[in-house]
Write a structure and sequence with these properties.
Length: about 130
């Protein structure tokens, strides 16, 4: 700290600088938002957070090209992480749990297809959806 102060680096360090670049993207986004919120850069309640999610979804829908759509998809994910944060949940954890639920349910579809002696690739979405439900 003394060396950084002597070289003037201490004044240049930002609040987000300490967030590890090797964190998974969801964890990094949530940490950025947590740190920004600690210094007051946050909405006063959850309503505008949800409005931002909806705004970003509309921007994805109306993006004029693939490059812009990719940027808007990133903004949408970032906004969703903020919504998760507002609900006092961890984005990595809730997504991991959703992944596990999807995997279990999809495995059920595969099992059902085997029991019916059907190739999964030849089944229609409607047939697979019956097994999903």
């Amino acid at each position: 700290a003394a060396e950084r102060e002597a070289t003037g680096e201490a004044d240049q360090k930002g609040i987000l600088d300490g967030v590890s670049s090797v964190f998974p993207a969801l964890e990094q986004a949530q940490e950025y938002q947590d740190r920004a919120a600690r210094v007051g850069f946050d909405w006063p309640d959850v309503a505008p957070v949800l409005a931002k999610v909806m705004e970003e979804l509309e921007e994805v829908r109306t993006a004029p090209d693939d490059d812009q759509r990719d940027k808007e998809l990133g903004d949408l994910l970032f906004a969703v992480v903020n919504y998760v944060r507002w609900h006092k949940a961890d984005s990595e954890t809730v997504l991991r749990e959703a992944n596990q639920r999807f995997r279990r349910r999809f495995a059920h579809i595969e099992k059902g297809a085997r029991e019916m002696r059907r190739d999964l690739g030849s089944m229609t979405l409607a047939e697979m959806d019956v097994l999903w439900d």
